[in-house]
Design goal:
Blueprint (H helix, E strand, L loop, with lengths): L8 H14 L12 E6 L2 E7 L8 H12 L8 E6 L11 H8 L3 E6 L10 H7 L3 E4 L3 H7 L1 H9 L3 E8 L18 H8 L7 E5 H7 L18 E6 L9 H4 L6 E5 L3 H10 L4 E6 L1 H9 L5 E6 L21 E10 L2 E9 L5
Parallel strand pairs: 3-4, 4-5, 6-10, 6-11, 7-8, 7-10, 8-9
Antiparallel strand pairs: 1-2, 1-3, 11-13, 12-13
Length: 350
């Protein structure tokens, strides 16, 4: 499988397909985000992305676009797709059929489909139809795009993102009487955008009792048409304030109470519901458990220039058996706050 240099023409067009795919992030579960671009005579004649599960796949959208704008150029053209085209009937017909019917003569895709039903089957099917296939173009970028889907479809467990806002001394609560927030308005807005990627937002019952959060899509995210993510509360007692937002607002039917279950079992049940990505927003007990049990795939920490001198730590409960390093860490200043994100590297035997 060849991985092409970004300077060649295939990489150029695949970058455009990736731009298309990113428009579907958070909107397609339980399907992955996918983008497609069709090229003829060294120009784009059609493009599209998968916008919603049950709707047309990216390849079909791009073919329809090209058929409308450049019908004479479509036969013999090349299609660039971020993910291996599907080859079985699901909610929609196989994309390999649509590619053949359109008269396309070359297919270039980035990542193999991790779904065992489709994995590495497109090349054989399209090859029998006389269509040339190239794979592995911008492989790392295309694989990163579908990381949550790949985990869910191969393990049944959702991809887990964790988020925390803390003081410089690692606290997520302020001294009594000082109010709820540690981080700035801008940092909190940045963190809320992570909800756009999630199918479920998970918190502990103590967070409900202390903060009465809404866990809703805001800051323009609701305008994308994304369905309100499930709001999942882990509780031992089942006792929540009856007037809390999660039980009384317009999205109360999107609230799930998970009583007496450990975190791994909750994630398993959510995966069975078709939840591909879970965002854990706290509190410290849940965050600590997620790290102790190595359930975290991606971490986002927002740090305020504040020293609290006490209160709950961001990772509470029993200490971790070993420190956790974040790979591919990125640091973003947000005014006087700092956002650090990365992917946990779990030490063998920890």
């Amino acid at each position: 499988m060849a991985i092409h240099d970004k300077t060649d023409s295939d990489a150029r067009w695949m970058h455009l397909a990736l731009d298309q795919a990113k428009r579907g992030i958070g909107l397609t579960s339980p399907n992955p985000p996918v983008g497609a671009v069709i090229v003829a005579q060294d120009r784009v004649i059609g493009q599209g992305y998968h916008a919603k599960a049950g709707g047309p796949h990216a390849e079909v959208v791009a073919i329809q676009d090209a058929r409308t704008a450049f019908p004479k150029l479509l036969p013999g053209a090349t299609i660039y797709v971020t993910l291996e085209p599907c080859c079985t009937h699901g909610r929609t017909p196989p994309c390999t059929d649509a590619i053949q019917a359109a008269g396309l003569k070359r297919v270039v895709f980035g990542a193999d489909d991790p779904n065992p039903k489709h994995h590495q089957r497109a090349r054989e099917i399209l090859g029998r139809a006389g269509i040339a296939v190239t794979s592995g173009v911008l492989l790392e970028d295309c694989t990163r795009l579908i990381r949550p889907f790949a985990k869910w479809v191969t393990t049944g467990l959702p991809y887990v993102i964790v988020k925390a806002g803390q003081s410089l001394d690692g606290r997520i609560t302020r001294p009594a009487g000082e109010g709820q927030w540690l981080t700035s308005d801008a940092a909190r807005m940045h963190g809320r955008r992570l909800r756009m990627r999630a199918d479920a937002i998970l918190i502990g019952a103590e967070t409900v009792r202390k903060d009465n959060p809404q866990l809703t899509l805001r800051d323009g995210c609701a305008a994308t048409g994304k369905e309100q993510p499930w709001r999942v509360v882990l509780t031992r007692s089942g006792n929540l304030p009856p007037e809390c937002h999660l039980l009384t607002d317009t999205h109360k039917d999107r609230t799930l109470l998970m009583q007496g279950l450990d975190l791994r079992d909750v994630l398993k049940q959510l995966g069975e519901r078709g939840v591909v990505t879970v965002l854990i927003e706290g509190g410290g007990i849940i965050l600590g458990q997620a790290f102790r049990e190595q359930l975290v795939d991606e971490a986002h920490w927002y740090i305020a220039p504040l020293l609290c001198g006490g209160g709950r730590p961001s990772l509470a409960g029993d200490p971790l058996p070993a420190s956790v390093e974040l790979e591919h860490a990125r640091v973003l200043p947000i005014g006087d706050n700092v956002h650090i994100c990365g992917f946990p590297r779990w030490k063998p035997g920890a």
